[in-house]
Amino acid sequence: MSSPKPKPAGAQPATPAAERPLRKDALRNREKLVAAARAAFATAVTVPLEDIAREAGVGIGTLYRHFPTREALVETVYAAELDEVTSCSSALLGQLPPDEALRAWMDRYAQFSAAKHGMIDSLRAGWASGRITPPTRERITAEIGAYLAAGAEAGSLRSDVDPEDVTAILLGVFLSTASSGTPEQTGRLLDLVVDALRPKAQR
After folding, report:
1. 69-99: per-residue pLDDT in tens?
2. Which CATH number fits domain 70-202: 3.30.70.670, 1.10.357.10, 3.30.420.240, 1.10.30.50?
């Protein structure tokens, strides 16, 4: 048996295909697919992947090259939307008092929770497997904690509230209004939540 040939000096190990940066055209196609999927999942209960590919202006083969399964596409869309929800807090706190910023953020979180009609089955599978729920809840709770800390320092929000309790209340609001509620009702409930988080003297 011949011994393996030595690698040239300075040679770098081959980069696995999955880790190689996407070409510009491939990156554009991926972005178009994610945008089309976000719009489709927000409005329909069952969305054929062929429809998403057509709306993005690519073939179904291109979709499967980027997202081998529906679950992979759903998780990518979900992660992108979660990033938006958890990245807007600094801007809101820079523009509004903490209690008002929290209320504005709750509206954004409500939109995030509501726009899941076409993803619900895949999301449930992700929740059941634990791939999605724990980091989602932790990140949302961390955002709420930042608002509560800023509000406690400013005197506009209570200092004795556990952020995890607020997360649980919000999930209850969104769950209870998911099927038969209206945006107006959700807004009223969120107003009540924020009011309960204010110091007694300000209620």
Report:
1. 888 898 888 888 889 999 999 999 999 999 9
2. 1.10.357.10
